[in-house]
Amino acid sequence: MIEIAGTEYSLNDPMVMASLIGVAVTFLILVLLFLALRAANRSARNIEPLTRQMVQLGQHVQQLGQGQEQLRGGLQHVSDTQATAQVQVIQTVEARLSSVQQQMNDRLADNAMKSTRALAEMQERMKESLHGSSKQTATSLTQLQERLAAIDKAQDNITKLSGDVLSLQDILSNKQTRGAFGEIQLNDIVSKALPADSFRLQATLSNGRRADCLINLPNPPGPIVIDSKFPLEAYEALIGSSSDAEFKSAVQMFRTTVRKHITDISEKYILDGETADGALMFLPSEAVYAELHAKFPELVQESFSKRVWIVSPTTCMATLNTMRAILKDARMREQAGAIRKELGMLHKDVERLGERVTNLDRHFGQAAKDISDIKISAEKAGRRAQRLDNFDFEELVPEDHNNVVPLGKTEV
Predict the structure, then answer these.
(1) Highest mean pLDDT of the ranges 65-69, 130-134, 272-276
(2) Residue 26: which domain range?
(3) Which of 61, 84, 122, 190 is 20 to 30 A (C-alpha) from 291?
(4) Does 374 lie in the same domain as 274?
(5) Is there a domain that residue 133 lies in?
């Protein structure tokens, strides 16, 4: 219930409800009208700069139209000028084409004459060239025959070399000759690296064994033996195997043979009190040395344990150079007394030389002083001679007037 002006109204009354709804709708319409007016004012303010821009755009469009009219006039002028220039160019080109055509005709005639003369000269040169080529061909055939003869001679040398290679293969296939080959190679290396009195070939030891090479090193380490009789049959079987079974068999054979050879060297050539505490096993091939170290390291370790050092031609040369240094050091120690004596004499000679240099320096100083005095006297004599030559008697010093010889009067 609500009371208005002393009258009570029920909210459930349809008339009251309709009146309230109408009032609410009217209020809503008023609010919407107010918002619409505000939006219209805002739109008007926003449209005002746009209006000014539209006015400016219209002015620009008008100016663009004027520029287009001017451009149309300029294009018309350019078109007229281009038409005139095109007519002039066509006339000029026609004139130049006529001139060029005439020049081309003249040049074609001239070229035709030159071509005729060139063909005649070419024919003459061809004749001369063919004649010279025939001579050169004959000379080349002669040289070819000589070269074929040289090739035949070289073929004979190759055939002879093949026979030598086969004989070398026969040498290496025989155990005794292969051992001799290894000994010769070892002898060559040792003789180049060491003095001749520092080693012995085919030296016999106290146990009756004969060593391929015995190097006389001082104690320690003492004389050391080098053995060159390496078994190459196992290595040849290893590199020549064509199947897995042959390869396995060759590997086992190589391992067994090398192990036995290491043991033989250790037992035969390492003697207490006579040789060094080790021996060298010489391999005559770098390939065998590389194969042994690459695929059989256990054999190398076993050789170390048995004090047998494996060397190839390259490593043997390095080892021998080390031994040479040891020998040189030992001999220097042996000659230490003589060296000390020579050094004492050298010291006295140096002292004597110093004394003589001092005396010579003193003589040189005296000689330099004498030479300086002589130069001074020579300069004075030269000046006097010059004055005499120019009759400069007035410049003579007063004390020299007494020495002047007066001229006598001439008797008439």
Answers:
(1) 272-276
(2) 2-107
(3) 190
(4) no
(5) no
Q: CA–CA distance from 110 to each of 104, 105, 113, 122, 303 (Å)? A: 10, 9, 5, 18, 97
Residue recorded with tokens 């024919």 = 123
Residue 146 belongs to a domain: no
With 0-12 CB in 10 A as exposed, 13-18 as middle and 19+ as buried, what is 253? middle
Say whether both 317 and 184 belong to one domain.
yes
pLDDT digits (tens, 9 = 90+) for 372-401: 888 888 888 878 777 776 655 455 455 455
The greatest distance separating any two alpha carbons of the chain, rounded to the nearest whole angstrom, comes to 199
Give 72-129 pLDDT, tens digit per residue.
777 778 778 877 877 787 888 777 877 877 888 788 878 778 877 877 787 777 777 7
101 and 211 fall within a common domain: no
Q: Is residue 278 part of a domain?
A: yes
Q: Are residues 50 and 89 in the same domain?
A: yes
CA separation for the pair 353, 371 (Å, rounded): 26
Domain total for the chain? 3
Considering the domain architecture, whether residues 323 and 230 belong to the same structural domain is answered as yes
CATH number, position 288: 3.40.1350
